[in-house]
């Protein structure tokens, strides 16, 4: 579906709110844009990608490194191409966060790997879940973490075991292909795609087309950096679309019917920028083409000389949204997209926790572990529990949660009891429901501070301390081990960024810088916005519960009417937030 040449284009959307980011400054040096500067590599990272496509390392892993062990791995493969198959070396135990920035990667890394299982759309069967659980117990010391990108990560994996792990995953339709690396990462999809009673459109066909056509395609396996995608047809806008490189949000066009509002250029990290509406509407059968066009622009025009500028958000900051859309349509699509409306404000919470009606009359049940931490044993038990209650389908979510599908109404309460026994809460406290955490210093070479355990302890303490506090919505607490924002600290009510801080006695200790009042479009706010930072406001790693109790209590006492935490945090004086 296209517009005729006589039709006029609607004004482009206003720039999304976010940190100001600057493209590389004009200079005599090329920026590594392939269609502008040519394809000559301008740094070591670009060189190794051109020397050998990252996808090719699989053959060496299976036939050389798995036999020779860790010591046999070529350093460039180890620190580069392994990522194309979901493998990162993990942090060596006992190295404190103060040394993260001073040691070389080989000094920080252990001879074990994090393995990321790619789960596009978060869609799993109990057979697949049981397979992941078995791999965890057999090869990963019973570790398993839900990520906020719907994947499951395992740790303590040896290279010798990777071929067998791949064999088991692929036997049930799972893979680790391009789960990491400078490639199209996992496609976030609505966890209730195809089953929610209030769904506008099921994005599963679009997710399937993108992944089947383009994931593992050598033509897209050398991007400037990672490329993130989100697609939803649910009115809660449940895929954090504003912080993805490209996103599609279900919307009804007044003339053309149900399709997708297209967003581009979102990403957080140390220099966050919220995505922008392209101003275009894509029909369901156009989504894969539009996705491929945006990814190809990134490949061909993205900045490659400086790795810290090699995300799509920097190109869009340079070009502007109107030029980006024009290049997409004229150079890559060959037709104009229809102008389209924005999706309305969400009316419900998008984490899907609790019991909800499916379109077929059955129920889906959303449950949360504490900060995404689970285990192989628990995953296997979950598969057994779900099957015992008549279902073989579940989903992971972008909020480190599970959604269990196809539950008959009379089996809901027995399932909830079984989930409680496994440590998964369908009716969690507001603080447990809203807390997520990245991997942290336990396994991550970039981390400065512990996250999972600190957040877990804080949640358990706060459930007691805040039990009588008048909070009517989940308080989002996001805990990150470094400035890279894997846990989306800038878009949380309370975001904690790991760093070494100075305590009251002058000692250097692990702690966090505090961001307050961030959030994405939700039932509480019309549009996304980044959190506020207060100069000098930092908390120690052991002081999370104390700080959250203090600021939450002040919010409950000082809020005006139905004011949200984010509105309050941006309104009050800095001293109130300390």
UniProtKB/TrEMBL annotation:
Pfam family, one: NIR_SIR_ferr
EC number: 1.8.7.1
Biased composition (Low complexity): 9-18
Record's catalysed reaction(s): hydrogen sulfide + 6 oxidized [2Fe-2S]-[ferredoxin] + 3 H2O = sulfite + 6 reduced [2Fe-2S]-[ferredoxin] + 7 H(+)
Record-annotated Nitrite/Sulfite reductase ferredoxin-like domain positions: 107-172, 356-421
Boundaries of every Nitrite/sulphite reductase 4Fe-4S domain copy: 181-333, 433-577
The UniProt record lists the keyword Cell inner membrane: no
Stretch list, region Disordered: 1-47
The keyword Metal-binding belongs to this UniProt entry's keyword annotation: yes
Top-rank taxon: Bacteria
Task of the protein: Catalyzes the reduction of sulfite to sulfide, a step in the biosynthesis of sulfur-containing amino acids and cofactors.
PANTHER family: FERREDOXIN--NITRITE REDUCTASE, CHLOROPLASTIC
Protein name: assimilatory sulfite reductase (ferredoxin)
Originating species: Microbacterium oryzae
């Amino acid at each position: 579906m296209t517009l005729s040449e006589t039709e006029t284009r609607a004004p482009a959307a206003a720039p999304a709110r976010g940190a100001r980011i600057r493209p590389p400054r004009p200079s005599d040096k090329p920026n590594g844009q392939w269609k502008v500067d040519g394809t000559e590599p301008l740094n070591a990272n670009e060189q190794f990608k051109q020397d050998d496509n990252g996808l090719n390392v699989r053959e060496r892993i299976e036939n050389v490194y798995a036999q020779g062990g860790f010591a046999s791995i070529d350093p460039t493969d180890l620190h580069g191409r392994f990522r194309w198959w979901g493998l990162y070396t993990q942090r060596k135990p006992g190295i404190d966060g103060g040394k993260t920035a001073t040691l070389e990667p080989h000094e920080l890394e252990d001879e074990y790997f994090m393995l990321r299982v790619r789960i596009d759309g978060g869609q799993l069967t109990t057979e697949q879940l049981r397979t992941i659980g078995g791999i965890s117990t057999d090869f990963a010391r019973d570790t398993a973490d839900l990520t906020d990108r719907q994947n499951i990560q395992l740790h303590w994996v040896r290279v010798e075991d990777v071929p067998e792990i791949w064999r088991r995953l692929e036997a049930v339709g799972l893979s680790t292909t391009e789960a990491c690396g400078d490639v199209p990462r996992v496609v976030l999809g609505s966890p209730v795609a195809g089953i929610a009673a209030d769904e506008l459109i099921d994005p599963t066909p679009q997710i399937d087309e993108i992944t089947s056509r383009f994931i593992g395609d050598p033509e897209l396996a050398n991007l400037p950096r990672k490329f993130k995608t989100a697609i939803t047809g649910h009115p809660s806008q449940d895929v954090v679309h504003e912080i993805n490189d490209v996103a599609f949000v279900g919307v009804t066009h007044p003339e053309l019917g149900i399709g997708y509002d297209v967003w581009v250029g979102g990403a957080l990290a140390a220099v966050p920028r919220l995505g922008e509406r392209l101003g275009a509407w894509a029909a369901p059968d156009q989504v894969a083409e539009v996705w491929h066009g945006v990814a190809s622009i990134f490949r061909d025009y993205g900045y490659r000389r400086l790795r810290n500028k090699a995300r799509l958000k920097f190109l869009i900051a340079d070009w502007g949204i109107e030029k980006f859309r024009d290049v997409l349509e004229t150079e890559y699509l060959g037709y104009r997209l229809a102008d389209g409306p924005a999706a309305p404000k969400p009316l419900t919470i998008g984490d899907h926790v609790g019991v909800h009606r499916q379109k077929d009359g059955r129920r889906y049940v959303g449950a949360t572990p504490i900060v995404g931490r689970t285990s192989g044993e628990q995953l296997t038990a979950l598969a057994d529990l779900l099957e015992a209650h008549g279902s073989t389908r579940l989903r992971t979510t972008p909020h480190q949660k599970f959604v269990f599908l196809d539950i008959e109404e009379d089996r809901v309460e027995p399932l909830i009891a079984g989930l409680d026994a496994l440590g998964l809460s369908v009716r969690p406290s507001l603080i447990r429901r809203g807390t997520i955490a990245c991997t942290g210093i336990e396994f991550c070479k970039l981390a400065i501070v512990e996250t999972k355990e600190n957040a877990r302890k804080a949640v358990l303490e706060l459930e007691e301390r805040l039990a009588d506090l008048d909070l009517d919505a989940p308080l989002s607490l996001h805990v990150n081990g470094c400035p890279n924002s894997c846990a989306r600290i800038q878009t949380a009510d309370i975001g904690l960024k790991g760093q070494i801080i100075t305590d009251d006695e002058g000692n250097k200790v692990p702690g966090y810088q505090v961001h307050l009042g961030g959030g994405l479009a939700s039932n509480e706010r019309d549009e996304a916005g980044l959190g506020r930072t207060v100069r000098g406001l930092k908390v120690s790693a052991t002081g999370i519960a104390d700080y959250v109790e203090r600021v939450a209590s002040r919010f409950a006492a000082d809020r005006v009417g139905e004011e949200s935490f984010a509105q309050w945090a941006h309104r009050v004086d800095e001293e109130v937030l300390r």
